[in-house]
Amino acid sequence: MKDKRRSTDNFKHYVNELQKGNSFFSAEIIFSKSVLVFAFIDAVKALLFLMANSLYMMIVYGLTCVLLITVAHGRIKKGHHLSVIMIVLLEISVMSVITTIFVGWDTGFSNLLFACITASFYFPLVVKTEKRNMLSLCFCILILLCYFVCYLLTSILIPITPLSRSWTIFFFIFNTLLSMALMVAFSFLFVWELMSKQRILQQQNDQLDELAHKDPLTHLLNRRSMNELIETHMDNLKKTGKRFTIVLGDIDNFKSVNDTYGHEAGDMVLVAVSEIISRNVGPSDLVSRWGGEEILILLSDPLEAATLTTDRIRKRIDENIVSHEGQDIHVSMTFGAAESIPGFRIEHLIQQADDKLYYGKKHGKNQVVTDLPADFVIKKK
Q: Quick one: 228 exposed, middle or buried, by C-beta within 10 A (0-12, 13-18, 19+)?
């Protein structure tokens, strides 16, 4: 019972993934399965012609089935997918014309040519070629020519091996249903392939966006992106008066971590600290790697609430242990916080946070500084 439920769940998941456009098959598998399907259809037709006492058509379809599998399979193995498309579509087109000439227009074998039109748009989409649009157009023209050739020849010539009335009706229904099924299948595959390509394109765009706006090591916002977002918040401050707080943090004694444990350990510490900060801020807050071991945080709260958040982050970092090659690394972090003021320039706001950070570094580290003594003078080198 559990296995049956698991199989049902797997099937539902598979269908959902298909609807999303997640591709599971390579071009080689797609063409291999397609050739097998068309070969199977030819084999079924050969059997039906045998039952209808049409020996000639049975032999023709039987040989076609064998040749299609043999030739197309070899081309697929060599990666010549374009030639496989031509073989399959030509086989269907030519066989539709030949069969119509032999058994007559009323059997509906010419209807299969309509299915070829949808196939002519799907198959070139799978193949990596710049001429896919031209290929589809050429195949459509060829298929339409075959259709009109069938009609003209059957209006002039008498069927070579006509079938009985009952078999003519049967083949008409069979070919009509088969044509519709193939058109639906190729239309579905066409949409699926487009969705798959769209998903891949979206993933590539997301990766480019990640590279353009995020720091590759910590996956925090980079400096340029953070500056743009701070400007947006400053504009919002002018319109609504909603204040925010800029917090600039620096990992204490980070140079000694690199010197003692190596730069790989330093990277691990940076990543660990970034993750702690990201987990402890709100959804409307922003975190960026400002430079080196400095991290700038934009908290969407006034200074008092932002100070509580920052101190909580500081404690989490102080309690955290980073393990590297069997060694435990403990780090702390110092923060300087400055509240936004209408009319203040971004550079001045960040400079205030930086001055407070500098004060904290000079007076004990591992703390959050929100105010500077009146007599404190910045003496940076």
A: exposed
In tens, the pLDDT along 149-191 reads: 888 888 888 888 888 899 999 999 999 999 999 899 888 888 8
Cα–Cα distance for residue pair 41/219, rounded to 1 Å: 53
How does pLDDT run across 3-42, given as a tens digit for each residue? Answer: 556 556 555 665 565 555 555 556 677 777 777 787 788 8
CA 184 to each of CA 94, 122, 216, 354: distance values in angstroms, whole numbers, following the listed order = 22, 12, 45, 64
β-strands 333-339, 368-369: how paired? parallel
Closest CA to 60 of 40, 43, 74: 43
Q: How far is CA 293 from the centre of its chain?
A: 33
Give the C-alpha separation, 47 to 62, whole Å.
9
Q: What single string gives the DSSP state of each residue in 194-254?
A: HHHHHHHHHHHHHHHHHHHHB-TTT-SB-HHHHHHHHHHHHHHHHHH----EEEEEEETTH
Task: Quote the CA–CA distance of 245 and 268 in Å, as a whole number.
Answer: 28
Instruction: Give ranges for CATH 3.30.70.270 in the chain.
Output: 223-369
The radius of gyration of the chain's CA atoms, rounded to the nearest angstrom, is 35
| Residue that the structure tokens 């790697």 belong to | 289
> Are 122 and 180 a contacting pair, CB within 8 Å?
no
| 236 CA to centre of own chain | 34
Distance separating alpha carbons of residues 191 and 188, to the nearest angstrom: 5
- Domain 223-369, CATH homologous superfamily name and number: Reverse transcriptase/Diguanylate cyclase domain (3.30.70.270)
Find all residues with CB under 8 Å of 69, minimum gap 6, and list them: 35, 36, 39
At 26 the three-state DSSP class reads coil
Q: Hey, how many other C-beta atoms are within 10 angstroms of the C-beta on 19?
A: 11
